Amino acid sequence: MYYVFDLYEKSIEYQDRSSGMGDVIASQDRNPSDSGDNIEMSINYHEREMEISRATAHKLGEVRSYCTLGEDYIVLGQYAKSIDYFEKAVEISQATGNRKAEGNSYNGLGGVYYDLGQYEKSIKYQEKALEICKEKEDRDGERTANTYIGSLHRALGQ
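^ thats the sequence. predicted structure below, dont judge the formating
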């Protein structure tokens, strides 16, 4: 919570041993005053989170790790790697029946294809995310998917 108020050091102090550490570092990376090294630190923490999740058979943690790594690699412009992580997240989500995580993973895939300018493919994934959000009555997720889909149709001139 401290990261919301730009108290990054305090946030790191309290979250260093939790699975949220990479997210703290990633939020710092979005701050233009940062050195740029934070995304690498974020990746290191997310990879550690993934290893721990695998070792403890914590599938939701593994999915979260894949999604956050996918986001990290978007920042680096490594889209193929990002797609790979999001696809792994979809696969595990489907295997475990976690529809909400599956929807979040589709949203991430849609975001990658949006950044790549592959708008039709992005729409396909955002529509899958929207369907799941409606099913799970996830209003925030619906809003996000609708925003993406609207922006995509605008980009396509529709």
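The longest helix spans residues 38-55.
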